[in-house]
Prior knowledge:
Blueprint: H1 2-30, H2 37-92
Amino acid sequence: MNLIADFLLAAGAFATALYCLVLANRLKRFTALETGMGGAIAVLSAQVDDMTQALERARASASSSSSGLEDQVRRAEAAAAKLELMLAALHDLPDAVPRTDSPDPDERRLRFVRRRSGVSAAE
């Protein structure tokens, strides 16, 4: 009985050693820097760094354009306030020329139309 137990124990140890060798080979291929997942992770890390730099540049550009836009809005609001003030001042002025949109019937002028005669002067 001891012989069978020793044989099974040796077979189990051999199977475990073989399983560990297979896993070690897979792990080496998995972490290979050029062809395995290590290479993919290195590429993704470089892309993340590039995207971070691009994001910082975009953030700086957006900040500068935002401050420029705020300045333009401030100037436009000041100009709009001036225009409103000028328009209000124009409403207070009297009309310089009286309106002749609908003339009174009494003020109608007579029109005279001259027509040339049908006979020319050469005849």
